[in-house]
Amino acid sequence: MTNTEKRILFLQWAAELTIFAKDQEIDFIVTCFKREDEQQHANFKAGLSQIDGITERGNHQDWLAWDLGIIRHGLVTWNPDHGYKILGAKWESLGGYWGGKTVLRSGGRDYCHFGFDK
Ligand SMILES: [Zn+2]
């Protein structure tokens, strides 16, 4: 599958996720889509990503991931129980990779990450 074909499929999944979230009355914004190589490497050094962005490319570097911020009472919430797990299960059912099951080197989980693959 070419990168363009992956990007088309990713956006189809993203559209389905957006409609699913609306039906579930879960509002979200996209906080990161495209990430430059330097930022990916900086996130790796900070323990916020498993991927260094140099020897291995991350989905964000190729327009193949969304980081979402779920909105509760007008503000972004990072509580995984405020919709992330519901959207994560939907995302995985579509075939995508959800970051909520991976423990990062920082000790946290990437609940907000909805990528094409790992
Ligand atoms: Zn991400």
Walk me through what this model shows:
This protein is α+β, with helices and mostly antiparallel strands and 118 residues long. It has a single domain (3-115), classed as Muramoyl-pentapeptide Carboxypeptidase, domain 2 (2-Layer Sandwich). The chain is 38% helix and 19% strand. The protein has 3 helices and 5 strands. The protein has helices at 3-23, 37-45, 80-94, and strands at residues 27-32, 65-72, 75-77, 97-98, 113-115. Strands 1, 2, 3, 4 and 5 form a 5-stranded antiparallel beta sheet that branches. A hairpin with a 2-residue loop joins strand 2 and strand 3 (75-77). It is globular and about 40 Å long. It starts with a helix and ends with a strand. The site of zinc ion has 5 residues, from strand 2.
Gross morphology is: globular
| Number of domain modules | 1
Q: What string gives the helices and strands in order? A: HEHEEHEE
Distinct small molecules? zinc ion
Please describe the biggest sheet, giving its number of strands, its sense, and whether it closes into a barrel. 5 strands, antiparallel
Query: Roughly how many Å apart are the termini?
Result: 15 Å
SSE map:
Blueprint: H1 3-23, E1 27-32, H2 37-45, E2 65-72, E3 75-77, H3 80-94, E4 97-98, E5 113-115
Antiparallel strand pairs: 1-2, 2-3, 2-5, 4-5
Helix pairs in contact: 1-3
Bound molecules: zinc ion (ZN).
